[in-house]
Amino acid sequence: MSTTPPALSHLDESGQVRMVDVGGKAVTARVAIAAARVRMNATAYGLLTQPGQGKGEVLNTARVAGMLAAKRCAELIPLCHSLPLSFVGVDFALDDAAHSIDIRATCHTDFRTGVEMEAMTACSVAALTVYDMCKAADKGIVIEQVRLEYKSGGKSGEWRADT
Questions:
Q1: Sign of the CA dihedral running 36, 42, 45, 49
Q2: How far apart are CA 145 and CA 100, in angstroms?
Q3: What angle do CA 50, 34, 15 make, to 5 degrees?
Q4: What is the H or E stretch that residue 131 is in?
Q5: 63-110 pLDDT tens trace
Q6: For the chain, how far is it from start to end, CA to CA, in angstroms?
Q7: How far is CA 153 from the centre of its chain?
Q8: Which active-site residues does the annotation give?
Q9: What is the reported pTM?
Q10: Nearest 5°: phi and psi at 97?
Q11: What is the DSSP letter of 17?
């Protein structure tokens, strides 16, 4: 176990912002899974899930938006590296009792750095897309609990969030 105290990897010794040099790292298979939740009022949720009302259109649009966002993560987050993504998946689970949609994004790469930011960006943009498409029925939609659930690969190996 390492005795080195934690540090912010994107700050140099003098506290200035820097991009992490991953050139010397090994190329490994890396996976990240992130999650988010979108909560809305009963009216908006009812419209979203009503047969023939477009649940498929809203969620499919959000799925594509999430995948595109993961692919463009380095353009959105200043210090992220451009990664060759081999897979991006965005899935949804509806919770009728809570009027919410759980979003899960999975990203894979074989590269020198992880895909955590890509997975969280995919979840965030998918959630924002649901908001955009449902806001006419509920301006108070809440996007919450965006978080990394799992990552594997690289020097730090496997990590799982506490449930």
A1: positive
A2: 12
A3: 135
A4: helix 116-134
A5: 999 999 999 999 998 888 889 999 999 999 999 999 999 999 999 999
A6: 24
A7: 17
A8: 132
A9: 0.88
A10: -65, -35
A11: B
